[in-house]
Write a structure and sequence with these properties.
Layout: E1 4-6, E2 12-15, E3 21-23, H1 44-48, H2 58-62, H3 74-77, H4 81-96
Antiparallel strand pairs: 1-2, 2-3
């Protein structure tokens, strides 16, 4: 190995011969590998086998809205990407038909 140059306040060392950077704090430490494989959870629509999210089904659509009328995110609602898009379209249709409020 070549000589190691230390930059002030940088938190890493440069190996002058190799020209590579190596971390000084976490040298040799690794995160433990994930032990098992998690089973994929399905969204509420995929679980029931629903292909079309109906805008007239207000009870289901209200579960995807906050009390202020905002649409919950995918992470919060648990929907997959495709079903979230279908639900968004259904909510907007229901709002236009005055079945759901825009805001409260």
């Amino acid at each position: 190995m070549g000589t190691i140059q230390r930059r002030r306040g940088a938190g890493f060392a440069m190996d002058s011969k190799m020209g590579t950077r190596r971390d000084l704090e976490g040298a040799g430490r690794r995160k433990p590998a994930f032990a098992g494989v998690r089973e994929r959870t399905q969204c509420r629509f995929c679980r029931r086998g629903i292909k079309y999210v109906d805008y007239k089904d207000v009870e289901t659509l209200q579960k995807l809205l906050t009390n202020r009328g905002k649409i919950y995110s995918r992470k919060r609602s648990g929907n997959c990407a495709g079903c979230q898009r279908k639900a968004k379209k259904a909510i907007k249709r229901a709002r236009y038909m005055a079945l759901l409020p825009f805001t409260t």
